[in-house]
TrEMBL record:
Protein name: Hydroxylysine kinase
InterPro entries on file: Aminoglycoside_PTrfase, Kinase-like_dom_sf, Pseudomonas-type_ThrB
Functional summary from the UniProt entry: Catalyzes the GTP-dependent phosphorylation of 5-hydroxy-L-lysine.
Source superkingdom: Bacteria
CC per GO annotation: cytoplasm
Pfam families listed in its UniProt record: APH
EC category: transferase
Recorded catalytic activity of this chain's protein: (5R)-5-hydroxy-L-lysine + GTP = (5R)-5-phosphooxy-L-lysine + GDP + H(+)
EC number: 2.7.1.81
Length: 408
């Protein structure tokens, strides 16, 4: 769970200085460190449904995010930023990241936080959208297990800092959700149904959220799979490369024209085992959601497909976990017939996206190839399974499983 004031002890106060309508909720949760006693603590959290409260910090031109290495902030510099900008100090640990500089901070009182220094190439409007989404969720569904945005010393949700190369970066402090990451756990009973239900709950909480940056082009967005072709040159296996090209041809001809007819909104778009916290190493339920860095406006089915793609197995029932996830999702947020039919194809497209982008990035950044390629083998396995079963048969299997459960 997030290391912050417990719900029972949390102090809620409305920001009386904010100019907003009665429909725009602004809540600061937990006391300010200055009022928290000599032991200090985390700064107050932002919770608002008013996007203007997390307005853009100056837009940058088209993002080159996939082409730019992380900021390269050192532990020493990270500690300096944490103290000067957010007024906290503690034990620092650098975390792996594909594009940002992230630090886990443990304060003297036991509280934990995540200092996130964003890649300079990320459009700041997109960063503002992610920040606004977390603030929106804090106001709409306070019990949803997501991180909270902590204020700077000046009462802002971020600050601009200068990295070692002289580039400007957005620095944010978030609560740290402690626990076991799903990728390091063994699945127990009801876990996958719980994952599906949690994703549906998150999607419902984001339904009323809007931000001007939500339409940005993100290569990880399945609806843009047709743009992957130039990256396929980095796939060394020529047989696999030809296979992926053929599947993209099918996408362009048969799948892409159907996507505009699906329900769409701003979604998480990266519900993978590295972004989910669970209750134990023998996990029975998800307890936390992290990393909103791939948020985008896209069909909600794409979001579900991303989540499902990581849970295909290589046993005699390779779709059993996916079926449980779809069932859990369906009980909270029922799918339409067209969505059931397209889901296996979109799951397969997520695997294609992973194989293309990771091959391309690993060639550009061989020193970080291990981290970049961490999901490649599983993606190839998932691709093989969907191809072997066939998208129509897979859709029938998932449809039957979901209909066996009644919506909540």
């Amino acid at each position: 769970m997030a290391a912050s004031a417990s719900p029972a002890a949390a102090t809620l106060r409305f920001d009386q200085a904010a100019k907003h309508s009665n429909k725009d909720i602004v809540v600061l949760i937990n006391p300010h460190p200055a009022a928290a006693g000599p032991s200090g603590g985390l700064p107050p959290f932002f919770a608002t449904t008013d996007p203007a409260r997390t307005a853009e910090i100056g837009a940058i031109t088209e993002s080159a995010l996939l082409s730019v290495p992380p900021p390269g902030i050192s532990l020493k510099e990270g500690a300096r930023i944490a103290e000067l900008v957010f007024g906290i100090a503690g034990e620092m640990r650098m975390l792996s990241s594909e594009r940002d500089s992230n630090f886990q901070i443990r304060l003297a009182g036991g509280e934990q936080a995540l200092l996130k220094i964003t890649n300079a190439a990320e459009d700041r409007a997109v960063t503002a959208m992610q920040t606004a989404a977390l603030a929106h969720l804090a106001a709409i569904d306070p019990a949803l297990p997501v991180q909270r945005i902590c204020e700077t010393r000046e009462g802002k949700p971020w600050e601009i800092v200068t990295g070692p190369s002289g580039q400007k970066h957005v620095a944010r402090l978030l609560t740290f959700i402690d626990g076991t990451m799903l990728h390091a756990a063994s699945p127990g009973p009801d876990l996958h149904r719980g994952i599906g239900a949690l994703l549906a709950r998150l999607t419902k909480a984001l339904r009323g959220f809007f931000h001007p940056a939500a339409g940005h082009v993100l290569q990880w967005d399945i609806k843009h799979a047709g743009r992957l072709r130039p990256m396929l040159d980095s796939v060394e296996d020529s047989t696999l490369r030809v296979r992926l090209i053929a599947l993209l041809d099918r996408f362009d001809a048969e799948i892409a024209p159907r996507l505009p007819h699906l329900r769409a909104q701003i979604v998480h778009n990266d519900f993978n085992p590295h972004n989910l916290v669970v209750n134990a190493t023998e996990a029975t339920r998800p307890t936390g959601i992290i990393d909103f860095g791939d948020m985008v406006h896209t069909p909600t089915l794409c979001d579900l497909a991303v989540a499902c793609s990581y849970h295909i197995t290589d046993d005699t029932e390779p779709l059993s976990r996916v079926a449980e996830m779809v069932t859990g999702y369906y009980r909270v947020l029922p799918l339409e017939e067209e969505e059931f039919m397209l889901l296996p194809d979109l799951i397969r497209l997520r695997h294609i996206t992973t194989l293309a982008i990771t091959a391309w990035r690993a060639r550009r950044y061989p020193e970080n190839a291990g981290y970049i390629l961490r999901n490649a083998a599983a993606s190839l396995r998932g691709l093989d399974v969907v191809d072997r079963i066939g998208p129509n048969k897979a859709a029938e299997t998932l449809h039957a499983a979901a209909l066996s459960a009644k919506p909540e």
